[in-house]
TrEMBL record:
Its EC number is 1.10.3.11. It is found in: Membrane. Belongs to the alternative oxidase family. InterPro entries: AOX, AOX_sf. This is Ubiquinol oxidase. Residues 84-104 are annotated as: Disordered. Its cofactor is Fe cation.
């Protein structure tokens, strides 16, 4: 009897929802207007455009964040790209889509492979130069790395602001996440300066002039193909992670005897940590709170930061997949009906040209 009553109630709710949706369409209201009550969520029962895959992706996000929270002492770069390996190793690249994705055309796979090959060459070239100049000067190397590492986020925000000014599209979440990433890298840089990494004029001269060139190169790359720019940043962040990880393993005992820089203690443990949570898009806010007792802890957290940057850059290579960790309402985290509405726009110049060609071909047919 209870089962029959429950089925009856669910049936009536479904019929009522369907009738309301049909009635709204008869009166001329659009589906966008129906969703205006809450712009961040979409009711899967009242729309025909949101697929089950979108809901499933939200479930995966929640599960993954929970796993990271339970194992926060051990941060690794999951499925990150190794700059010295070919992008299609073991059937998985670092691009937004796997090479064997049936939805990718043969031309698109070639474009992805070409973009990643260029990034591999550029990354390996820079690594060889740094190995030659800084093989025995760790803090100076870290200063140069951190000066360069924050530049792409400036470039990304510049291009996004340009798109916003032209009225092409708006991505507030991307701007928030990239600013938080630049804020994190800036504090890495301040830590290295406090440790004396910028003591020699040559290191400052090299880092600053490379950063200027890198900014314009990344801005052009991002306007041409955001996927390529994000992949290149992933390569750089992966190298940074590996560099700090190697340094910790070789100098760990000495680092435990040294005090932590003041700026590191303030950044990781004091004040408002909103921006600290913001760049870690694979985690829930407040799920990571570092403890800083010595210099070893500082470098451990810097390394873990680089791992989080790698995850964010990898996710960014899938168009429209990034949202601010603070954009989800608290009640939406446990609500499976909350789905993300994908944006319908082109990514960059290459993507816009490709979609224009497809649209013109479809019209001719």
């Amino acid at each position: 009897m209870a089962i029959s009553l429950s089925c009856s109630v669910v049936s009536r709710i479904s019929i009522s929802s369907t009738y309301s949706f049909m009635k709204a369409n008869e009166l001329g209201y659009s589906s966008v207007l129906l969703k205006s009550v809450n712009p961040f969520r979409l009711n899967c029962l009242s729309t025909l455009t949101t697929s089950a895959a979108a809901c499933h992706s939200r479930k995966l996000f929640n599960v993954r964040a929970t796993v990271l929270q339970e194992n926060e002492d051990k941060v690794i770069v999951e499925e990150s790209f190794n700059p010295k390996s070919f992008p299609e190793k073991e059937g998985k690249g670092s691009s937004g889509e796997p090479p064997d994705d049936p939805s990718s055309s043969g031309l698109e796979k070639l474009i992805i492979k070409f973009e990643q090959s260029i990034n591999i060459f550029l990354t390996d070239s820079v690594i060889k130069i740094l190995d030659t100049l800084y093989h025995d000067r760790d803090y100076a190397r870290f200063f140069v790395l951190e000066t360069i590492a924050r530049v792409p986020y400036f470039a990304f925000m510049s291009v996004l602001h340009m798109y916003e000014s032209f009225g092409w599209w708006r991505r507030a979440d991307y701007l928030k996440v990239h600013f938080a990433e630049s804020w994190n890298e800036m504090h890495h840089l301040l830590i290295m300066e406090e440790l004396g990494g910028n003591a020699w004029w040559f290191d400052r001269f090299l880092a600053q002039h490379v950063a200027i060139f890198y900014y314009f190169m990344t801005a052009f790359m991002y306007a041409l193909s955001p996927r390529m720019a994000y992949h290149f940043s992933e390569c750089v962040e992966t190298h940074a992670f590996e560099t700090y990880d190697k340094f910790i393993k070789t100098q760990g005992e000495e680092l435990k005897k040294l005090p932590a820089p003041t700026i590191a203690v303030k950044y990781y443990t004091e004040g408002d940590l909103y921006l600290f949570d913001e760049f870690q898009t694979a985690r829930l806010p407040n799920s990571r709170r570092p403890k800083i007792e010595n210099l070893y802890d500082v470098f451990m957290n810097i390394r873990d930061d680089e791992a989080e940057h790698c995850k964010t850059m990898k996710a960014c290579q899938t168009h429209g997949s990034i949202r601010s960790p603070h954009s989800y309402p608290e009640d939406a985290r446990d609500d499976d009906s909350g789905c993300i509405v994908p944006e319908a726009d082109c990514e960059g110049i290459v993507d816009c040209i490709k979609k224009s060609v497809k649209d013109s071909g479809a019209k001719k047919k």
